[in-house]
Q: What sequence folds into this?
C-alpha cells in the first residue's frame, strides 16, 4: 500500500505551514514545505528571490520543487499560495496526493499577515485591497481541492484535528483514494 501525500493549498495566511506541521506530527509523517525546500536549494530567502530575480524566476523554482517533492509518498506537503497558478503543479501534486484547501476570510488573512515581512507580494499600498486583488483570480483554482477547511476562528491545532478526523479513513490516505 502506498500512502497518499496530503497537500495543503490555499491563500497566504490561511495556516498551511502551521497546520501542516501539526498534522504531520499527528499522522507520524514528515512535512515538506515547498517554500523552505526552495530556500534550502537556492540558499536564499523567498523574499530575496522575488526582489533580485522576480516572480517569474520564483515560479520556475517553485515548479521544479513541486516536481521533486510531489514524487514523495506519505508526506504532508505545504505549498505557497501561488502554487495553483500553474496547472502542471496541481497535476503533479494530485498524482499521489489529496489536495486540501485551507480557507480564511480576507479579514482573517489581513490580521495574520499585516505584520509579516516575509510576504513579497504584499509590499506597499492598501494591504486589504492587495489581499483581495491576489485572492480573486486564485479562488476557483483553490476550489479544485478534494477537501476544504476554514481556519477562521480556529487555532492551527484545532484545524489540524479537524483535517485529521476527516482524512484518517483509508480512502483519503491510501493509494486509490
A:
Amino acid at each position: 500500500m502506498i500512502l497518499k501525500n496530503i497537500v495543503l493549498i490555499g491563500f497566504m495566511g490561511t495556516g498551511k505551514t502551521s497546520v501542516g506541521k501539526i498534522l504531520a506530527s499527528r499522522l507520524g509523517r514528515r512535512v515538506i514545505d515547498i517554500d523552505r525546500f526552495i530556500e534550502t536549494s537556492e540558499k536564499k530567502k523567498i523574499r530575496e528571490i522575488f526582489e533580485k530575480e522576480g516572480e517569474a524566476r520564483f515560479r520556475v523554482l517553485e515548479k521544479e520543487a513541486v516536481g521533486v517533492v510531489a514524487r514523495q509518498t506519505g508526506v504532508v506537503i505545504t505549498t505557497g499560495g501561488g502554487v495553483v497558478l500553474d496547472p502542471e503543479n496541481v497535476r503533479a501534486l494530485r498524482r499521489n496526493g489529496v489536495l486540501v484547501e485551507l480557507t480564511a476570510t480576507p479579514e482573517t488573512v489581513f490580521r495574520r499577515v499585516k505584520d509579516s515581512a516575509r510576504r513579497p507580494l504584499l509590499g506597499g499600498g492598501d494591504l486589504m485591497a492587495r489581499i483581495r486583488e491576489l485572492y480573486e483570480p486564485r479562488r476557483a483554482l483553490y476550489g479544485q481541492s478534494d477537501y476544504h477547511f476554514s481556519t477562521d476562528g480556529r487555532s492551527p491545532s484545532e484545524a489540524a484535528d479537524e483535517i485529521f478526523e476527516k482524512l484518517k479513513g483509508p480512502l483519503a490516505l491510501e493509494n486509490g483514494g
